[in-house]
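[step 3/7] fold_predict: job queued, chain A
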Amino acid sequence: MACPCPRPIFLSFPKSPAPPLAVPAKHHPSATATVAVSHRPRAVSASSNATPPSPPPSPSPLPTDGVGPAAPTRGDVYLGRQLAAAAAAGARVRAPEEDAEKRRRRKEKRKALAKKTPSGVACCYGCGAPLHTGEEGSPGYVEPATYDLKKRHNQLRTVLCGRCKLLSHGHMVTAVGGHGGYPGGKQFVTAEELREKLSYLRHEKALIVKLVDIVDFNGSFLARIRDFAGANPIVLVITKVDLLPRDTDLNCVGDWVVESVVRKKLNVLSVHLTSSKSLVGITGVISEIQQEKKARDVYILGSANVGKSAFISAMLKTMAYKDPVAAAAQKYKPIQSAVPGTTLGPIQIEAFLGGGKLYDTPGVHLHHRQAAVIHADDLPSLAPQSRLKGRCFPANDTDVELSGNTLFWGGLVRIDVVKALPRTRLTFYGPKKLSINMVPTTEADEFYKREVGVTLTPPTGQERAEGWCGLEGVRELKINYDELDRPAGDIAISGLGWIAVEPLGVPSSDPDGSVEEEDDVRGELHLTVHVPKPVEVFVRSPLPVGKAASQWYRYQELTEAEEELRPKWHY
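[step 4/7] structure written:
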């Protein structure tokens, strides 16, 4: 008997599970299992001896067991396998707050990079200000005829603006105002805007060369340098070491600088003592830059008037002997001037034969320095022009004691000596144009009112003295000493210089009296320092200058591990 033709099977994929189709028993008498004809895998009934296959493990909450309508579909199995693979690979869903932080950083980076001067904008090679023919006398101004001629011949990058020409001839033309700027004169840009121009540096891959003035070490140090440099490596360069007193041992100075950097917790590659005038230490800085820049751009960074443009000129002069690119760059180098704020924008310099560019940057203008409170015309009086020479009070040939007396350093600093030893001496290191006067403390107020603007300058002149803010910032100092054969410490005035405090600085003419003083080797000196309100006063360990410093200076005793972690210094 012929087997009847089997019923045709139609495959369908309904949205809801369909009941399984069973084959009639008369058609296949020996079969006892029901067959599910659909897109799902076949389910075996409980009467079958075959063991049903176990579903694959899945971390998802999808159903993984069941028979018949409750069995997982192929899509469920596929989704479970994908989720399991993602979990095995360590994939995770990012938290919403992490996404928000990432978006915030990207937005901040785009905003900072937008402030970078576009490469197509022609700028003055002397100060970095964009060239224009608008407001006469402003930074970047060029006469229209000169501008059109240079533009026609593609020579705008060789143009010096009118302000830079005046600066190169010794004129004092200020341009920076605002918080940290300079009162008096014209103010075309604020100190805050100049700081914003440097905000993109933290997002660049660059080598940062940070400059610090040794005469104003604390005031020009830029403790928050990482706000500008980001995570980029830093080479620390100390400038103007040629201004230190004669017979100063630079080994002591180098160790003192490294110790100060370690205390400030600034991580630097190395420390270099340099002089842009005598070219001391410049070769060592160039070698360090060539070794560490690794095809990155090099940015010269520092506070205003720290000597960045002079340092770049010294670098180009030294490199020109072996590098033709640096020799060609000397023709169009940044302008040097005693006016803080000479550079108003990043200046790109082609200085390296092997790639990478050198940038001179605007100085960071700090409101706590003396230059930010005096008139623009008085700024030259704050800049030392020759080697420093300590001025001691009282002098060795006098019998005057400091206790009960007041010392005026120009019209900018007043020091009241409240408590001191009979032979205590104060030694002033700073610009020679500022005179030092000593009067009894009881007469100090009247003396200052009468002589400010006349004997006590700056401020210079009666007109500026009337608008002078006065010495409203007062700080009471207690300086401890435990050794009589070395200075107890330095009082550093931001933007001016420092004062060395020596407990027994004056030689004794009475041998018996000196013995009584030396019995008390520990004590405290009380002084009150008056400065203009924004100006900061620092108390630090004594800077070892002069011939006698090599005798009393003590090097730090370090283990091999500590010595390895400390940055190395060179000169």
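[step 5/7] annotate
The chain is about 25% helix and 15% strand.
The longest strand covers residues 473-481.
exit 0
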